[in-house]
Amino acid sequence: MEVNRFKLQGLIGLPYDQEVMTCGHLVALGLQRLFGRDVAVPAGWPHGRLGQAKLIEALAEQLTERVDLPDSGDVGLYLTVDPETGLDYYHLGLVLVMAGERWLLHVCVGERSRLQREGEACQRGMRLDGYYRLRQEGGRHGDACGA
Fold first, then answer.
1. How many domains does the chain have?
2. 79 vs 72: CA distance, rounded Å
């Protein structure tokens, strides 16, 4: 799938907000703006690890197909370590393949949304759990995080 770079620019630099701009919100917004796909993000879920699990569970119902080799518009599910607690937590990113290279649109707690090479994100401690595709999508590209 081709990525509209003009629309993509509007998704970079958005500040993290636990109410309206978490990694799950950004994935849903990116899917809608870049690919015209509507993904429902549940409102009012609890915060912290429990809330995160509930959000991912709700999104998982819409991201039913696990794929080995993602394409633009697929969602990456990653594990990373919370620097304050040292505990693993899940993180979502929207996969974009541009010029044959895999990029990740994502936002972390206390930061702004960014477009980052997936390989760089993995070198900085993110570990791939799996790639997921919305129903009726297609396409494949290689794996940068060693899943």
1. 1
2. 20
